Each structure stands twice: as C-alpha cells, then as structure tokens.
Amino acid sequence: MKFLTKTRVALTAAALLIMLPFSVSQARDFAEIKESGVLKVSNSGAYPPFSFVDKEGNVKGFDVDVANAIAKKMGLKAEVTTTPWNGIIAALVAGKYDTCICSMSDTEERRKAVDFTSDYYWAGSALYTKEDSSVKTVADMNGKTMGTTLGETANTWAVNMVKEGKGSWSNQTFQGLPDLLLALDTGRVEAIAVDDVPVAIAMKEKGYKFRRIAADGLKKYPAAITVQRNQTELKAAIQKALDEIKADGTYATLMDKWIGFDISK
Fold first, then answer.
1. Are 18 and 112 in contact (CB under 8 A)?
2. Are 242 and 231 in contact (CB under 8 A)?
3. What b/e sequence results for 67-81 when a residue is b if at least 16 CB atoms lie within 10 Å of its CB, and e otherwise?
4. N or C of the chain: less Cβ packing under 10 Å?
5. pLDDT given at position 22
6. What values do phi and psi take at 159, rounded to 5?
7. pLDDT in tens, 171-198
8. How far apart are CA 51 and CA 83, in angstroms?
C-alpha cells in the first residue's frame, strides 16, 4: 500500500494544480515570438516514438518533427526542450515555453488550465500484462501492482478504480514509457495502464511479449497542441500551420515515418 499512498498524494496534488488558479506568468505573445524567430516547444522526451532523447542527447520523435514542421509553416524555428510529464502543464502556465506539442490528451480537466488546438492524432489507454502472465482480467490484478506514468489519463483511471472500490491493487508510478515497459518486462509490476499506440510500436520494434487485457473505463482521447489560455493569436497561428501540414501531405509522411499506421482518427 506504500506505492498507493504516494500515488494518491501525488495525484491529489496534480489535480489541485490543474483545478486551482495558477500563479500565471504571461508567455510571450505572438508578436514577440515572431520577432525572436523561435517557437519554444516542450515535450516529455520519455514517450517514444513521439518524443525521446537519443544517445547524442538530441530530442527526436513524431512530436518533434510535427513541431518543426509547424514552426516552419509559421516562419519560425522550433526550439524543443523536455519537461517531466507531471509538471508540463504548470511549466506552460508559468510561461517557460510557448506551446506543448507533447501528445497531450484533450480532456475537460486540462481545459481548465490550458487551451487546445484541434486534435492532431487519436490514441487510447489500455491495460497490458506479460504474455505468459496469470492475469487474464482486471479483477486478477487485485493484490498485485499496477504501473502507470504519473499525470497520464491511465494513471487517473488506475487510482480511481481503487478509490472507488472497483479494484484493490497497488499503484506504482514511473517517469516515462521506457521505465514503465521495463518494469513490466522484468516483473516489477504485473500490469501497466498506458497509451496503446507507443506500446504497440514497442512490442513490434523491441520484441516485448505483452498481452492486452480488456478494461472498462479506459477511453480513446484526441491528442492536441496546448498553449496558455487567452493566447488567441498564437493558437490561431499554430492551428493554421497544423491544418497546412495535414493538407500538403507533411503530416501523413511523418505519421508513416514514426508510427507506420493511421492514428489521425
């Protein structure tokens, strides 16, 4: 129960951070961004193939290439930095960067803190265990350990299931997808609740032997680009650029490069 207690405390703090008024530091407006020639973008850097740091320390992935393509359409250069996922909204609201192109699901709770463009892809959360695991259903996880990434929608589901008496597992959180996948593969956790697209790709590319388990309440969400609230001019410019890379085939090329199948709907 130690992990569960820590997760509940962290989740409560994260929820309050989203729901209560921020100490907002106004981000640069669009005129300042254009004058600088740089669009400051953040992602977690721990969510391959959408964002990850290679051996040379470079941030790469689908989100990075989308950011570069959008910035180019805007007549700018993207400056991509990484931020821990559980603090990424707070960093945006604090004005540390201009936008988050970071595979963030557009949810009602998050809209209380930030503004979203239209979606740029869709993904769902799912439950996975090892192929040879005795876990066949969600109920089989009772008394075992569930792994999630703090701040993700799947983490909220896993904690709320226990809180509402629909499950009795312990929740252990990780900083990013690579650690989460390794924890499942090495048996540190018996199952993980996680976004399905990157897991499907990791299974194909790295040979993980995982099995998907049906779980009520794990939904499909649109991923969208975020900006500070009331940054209407910047949001409109990013939206225009996003629409353009979808129309001219750039988006489809990047999707084929990094994902290999259609995630646009």
1. yes
2. no
3. bbbbbbbbebebbbe
4. C
5. 45
6. -70, -45
7. 999 989 999 999 999 999 999 999 999 9
8. 11
Distance in angstroms (rounded) separating the CA atoms of residues 150 and 177:
11
pLDDT of amino acid 10: 38
pLDDT at residue number 238: 98
Query: Checking phi first, is residue 13 left (phi over 0); if not, alpha (psi -120 to 50) or beta?
Result: alpha
* Distance between CA atoms of residues 215 and 14, nearest Å: 24
Q: How far apart are CA 15 and CA 22, in angstroms?
A: 12
Of 179, 15, 23, the closest CA to residue 86 belongs to 15
Peptide bond before residue 49 is cis, with ω within 30 degrees of 0: yes
| pLDDT score at 8 | 35
Give the CA angle between residues 254, 74, 107 to the nearest 5°. 65
Tokens of 178: 């690579």
Beta bridge partners of 194: 126
Spatial separation of the C-alpha atoms in residues 136 and 138, rounded to whole Å: 7
**Tell me, what's the pLDDT at 151?**
85
Q: Please list the ranges in the chain whose pLDDT falls under 70.
A: 1-25
Residue ranges and CATH numbers for the domains of the chain are: 2-11+124-220 (3.40.190.10), 21-122+223-258 (3.40.190.10)
Q: Specify the pLDDT at position 24.
A: 59
Q: Report the alpha-carbon distance of residue 174 to residue 87 in Å, rounded.
A: 14
The β-bridge partners of 129 are: 191, 211
Spatial distance between the Cα atoms of 193 and 197, rounded to a whole number of angstroms: 12
Q: Exposed, middle or buried by CB within 10 Å (0-12, 13-18, 19+), for 6?
A: middle
Q: DSSP character for 58? A: -
